[in-house]
Amino acid sequence: MKLLDMMYISLFAAIIGILGFFPPILLPVIPVPITLQTLGVMLAGGVLGARRAGLSLLLFTLLVAVGVPLLSGGRAGLGVLFGPGGGYILSWPLAAWTIGYCVEKSWSTLKLWKIITFNVVGGIIVIYVCGITFLSVVGNLPWLATAFTSLVFLPGDLIKAFIAGIITLKICRTYPLIKKFQQAA
């Protein structure tokens, strides 16, 4: 791995940490807060590509696991990762990788609607399936009831997918990191 790769991986882990400074929105119906950090997950996947995005979110998750308070509200530690919202956070490396993989595979025909679709698939569906399953197991709740309750996140996540799509497309056209990485490999 090159120094430039490590720099971008670290940069996006830091960006997602910075998004954690925005206070979480707590809801009475579900013990998982609404945060802006999933926007960073979507951006990492779209801008860095699969491998680097996955590694960036893996780095972020490891930092949280050892106690660096990077999650929204200054939360950190294994207690958070194995608590009700842990499945959502633990799914972030896979979600970023999924988005990055999709963007890489359609690089030559990349359009806004495709990036938004990739954000929905990786940044919403992957995260929801992992998070809902984890929450239902940890909370000893029925999966369908947990899934239904989690729909409260959907409007905000769709907005984040759209915003991340616009930003990703602008960055990819202005400074195409994925293309640079593909040429360097």
TrEMBL record:
<feature type="transmembrane region" description="Helical">
    <location>
        <begin position="115"/>
        <end position="137"/>
    </location>
</feature>
<keyword id="KW-0813">Transport</keyword>
<dbReference type="Pfam" id="PF02632">
    <property type="entry name" value="BioY"/>
</dbReference>
<comment type="similarity">
    <text>Belongs to the BioY family.</text>
</comment>
<dbReference type="GO" id="GO:0015225">
    <property type="term" value="F:biotin transmembrane transporter activity"/>
</dbReference>
<dbReference type="InterPro" id="IPR003784">
    <property type="entry name" value="BioY"/>
</dbReference>
<feature type="transmembrane region" description="Helical">
    <location>
        <begin position="57"/>
        <end position="74"/>
    </location>
</feature>
<dbReference type="GO" id="GO:0005886">
    <property type="term" value="C:plasma membrane"/>
</dbReference>
<protein>
    <recommendedName>
        <fullName>Biotin transporter</fullName>
    </recommendedName>
</protein>
<keyword id="KW-0812">Transmembrane</keyword>
<keyword id="KW-1133">Transmembrane helix</keyword>
<keyword id="KW-0472">Membrane</keyword>
<feature type="transmembrane region" description="Helical">
    <location>
        <begin position="86"/>
        <end position="103"/>
    </location>
</feature>
<keyword id="KW-1003">Cell membrane</keyword>
<feature type="transmembrane region" description="Helical">
    <location>
        <begin position="32"/>
        <end position="50"/>
    </location>
</feature>
<feature type="transmembrane region" description="Helical">
    <location>
        <begin position="7"/>
        <end position="26"/>
    </location>
</feature>
<feature type="transmembrane region" description="Helical">
    <location>
        <begin position="143"/>
        <end position="169"/>
    </location>
</feature>
